[in-house]
Amino acid sequence: MSGEPLLRVSGVSKSFRVGRQRLHAVRNVSFVLPAGQTLGLVGESGSGKSTLGRLALALLKSDSGSVEFDGNQLSSLSDRQLRAKRKDMQLIFQNPLGALNERSTVGRNVMDPLTVHGMGDLEEKTKRVHRMLERVGLQRTHADAYPFELSGGQQQRVMIARALILEPKLVVCDEALSALDVSVQAQILDLLLQLQRERHLSYVFIAHNLTAVSYISDWIGVMYLGEIVELAPADELLESPSHPYTKALFDSVLDIPESKEARSELEALPGEIPSPIDLPSGCSFHTRCPLAVEKCRTLRPIDRMVSPSHRVACHFAGEV
Amino acid sequence: MSAMLEISDLYVRFRRPEGIIHAVNGVSFEVKEGEWLGLLGESGSGKSVSLLSLLKLVGDNATIPRGTALFNGQDLLQMKERQLRTVRGRDVGVVFQNLSAGLDPYMRVGRQIMEPMLEHGICGKTEAQRRATELLEEMGLPDPKKQFNSYPFELSGGMRQRVMLAVAMACNPKLLIADEPTTALDATVQTQVLSVLREACERRKMTTVMITHDLGVATNVCDRIVVMYGGRVMEVADVDEFIAKTAHPYTLGLKSSLLTKRHRGQPLRPIPGNAITLWQSPKGCPFANRCPLAVDRCVHELPELRPLSATHEVACHRAEEVSASVG
Fold first, then answer.
1. Is the CB of B270 less than 8 angstroms away from the CB of A186?
2. Which end of chain A is flanked by fewer CB atoms within 10 Å, N or C?
């Protein structure tokens, strides 16, 4: 990828214990995110998107592999150094009301990160909170309101204000739009893009809403059962998806058709997503793949480069 | 096509500790026999309430001060609870968005599909069991005999939603109300559920109302679309007219808020502001405070639905100008 890398994730895996078994949430994932750019992560629920987001922020410890952020190996930092680094890396959740402290005012919620990191006296902090609230499209008076008094869109603006008040370099947006109405989603997306331009922010944008990801991302990574099966610059991935799963995923997006005649055939991907506890042999997508042959059932595909910055984990990539 | 359900001048209010929410304010539309009607709107638009309130599925704090809802000629709003119980689940099937609320977590799914058949005395236990297994198969669940005995938590979201479809269809209802049936699902699973739903409805010639906030879903599966906002109907159109000749500024705003690949690199034009909370029934157009075309009249005078063509109605004082600028 071009540009100065801010985040470099290399061969990261994470599994969780479920009873006596292991759930393989993220498997040998690598990517590089250049500063000021957005990586969109898409895939069905259970594909490991959110786990990967938390691994990238060192909120979860990986079983293997490494995460390098802003020149530092996160695993080699002491707790104290890591805490200091957290200023630069923030997370925005899907459910703002669950993530905000409902007993504190909006102002306190946005101010808390400043207090935690011991930044400035009350007067200065208040000033910064007010500036931040105005920047995300709220008013100073909202500082005295409680989160539940605001609409969903306004609550998400508060979340963004709280995430950005420390002027981070990286923000992981985990389904940040999913709980919002369509017209409000567009507002929030617009705000995220403006803020990115102003502050040279990098985003990891996790969403099952493919169109929002298509809109905001510079890079798109497609996840299936814990692996990134395809990763490419967004334009290229949208233009020429090379993994059969990527194709199926983007084909299932329902756009407004040209006319009634041109409507979607609603051709569904057959079968169900296999369990991450009991993974298929070979290529993990072979149980649902229209192109699968014997080789796919036995041999795990390695990444192929179909162009200098476009990689695909499929035996047939570039040939189809 | 004759009307299967005819809603006229419906008002629904909710008592809240802070006051009264005027959720539905003079809504009229019909559901024609055999059609797929899309009821499109954002949260708080009154789209679900307009239908679910008719079946008393909206909570005890709701009142319906005015309106009629003729279902096969009978007014649902005049029915006693006992009578309504014979309609709900038998003549009208409902599929809910919330997967965890729609199914009983402690009951095997097969049993849940049998229940409406037994409740309405449609058939005996053995027959109900046979039909339930058949329904599971029709909904495309792998190994239906085995799934019959599983509990909801053992199934994926998409499978649970298909079980809910089976429950709703168990009594072969004339009308199916699907309230955001695919909203909580992934795109690939959504396609699967919609395709199963469409086939099952076609086989039964079932009339279907799809309540949704998703323009993509509405335009790809519905024959006709009713757009709601602020507890009012904003626009009604056949799907082709909806796609090509939308004439309400709100509908246009919704369309331009819908993200597509084509938008990449182009600025977004979201609808500014937030929807108003309906502490009172709107005097003017409920969309006036966010509408780029609003004039004085819009704030003071409630626009009524009026026809632009035989199959297209719009509630906007400036509809002709909008439609001229679009067409």
1. yes
2. C
CB-based contact (8 Å) between B266 and chain A? no
Say if B271 is an interface residue toward chain A (CB within 8 Å).
Answer: yes
**Interchain CB distance below 8 Å, B255 and A153:** no
Element (H, E) at B22: strand B19-32
B172 interfacial to chain A (CB closer than 8 Å): no
Residue B178 near chain A (CB below 8 Å): no
Is the Cβ–Cβ distance between A16 and A22 less than 8 Å? yes
CATH number at residue A86: 3.40.50.300
* pLDDT tens digit sequence for A14-62: 999 999 999 999 999 999 999 999 999 999 888 999 999 999 999 999 9
Question: Mean pLDDT over residues B139-159, rounded?
Answer: 90
| Interchain contact, B194 vs A189, CB within 8 Å | no
Read off the pLDDT of each residue in B215-220 and give the average, rounded to a whole number.
Answer: 94
Amino acid at B181: P
DSSP state of B263: G
Task: Please indicate if any CB of chain A lies within 8 Å of the CB of B264.
Answer: yes
Print the domain residue range for A52.
5-239
As a whole number, mean pLDDT of residues A80-91 equals 93
Q: Do the chains contact at A249 and B188, CB–CB below 8 Å? A: yes
What was the pLDDT predicted at A1? Answer: 44
H or E, element range at B70: strand B62-71
Q: Which amino acid is at B197?
A: L
All residues of chain A having their beta carbon less than 8 Å from the beta carbon of residue B195 are 266-268
Nearest to B251, CA basis, from B277, B231, B233: B233
Structure-block tokens of residue A273: 């997503």
Q: What is the pLDDT of residue B118?
A: 95
Rounded to 5 degrees, φ, ψ at B52 are -70, -30
Whole-prediction pTM value?
0.88
Interface predicted TM-score (ipTM): 0.86
Strands (E) located in B180-292: 207-212, 224-229, 232-238
In a domain, A305, yes or no: no
* Total domain count, chain A: 1
Chain B residues close to A181, C-beta within 8 Å = 42-43, 213, 275
Q: For residue A318, is it within any domain?
A: no
Asked if B240's CB is within 8 angstroms of A187's CB, the reply is no
Task: Report if residue A26 sits inside a domain.
Answer: yes
CB-defined contacts A:B, below 8 A: 130
What is d(CA A127, CA B22) in angstroms, rounded to the nearest whole number? 39
Residue of A nearest to B260 (CA): A211
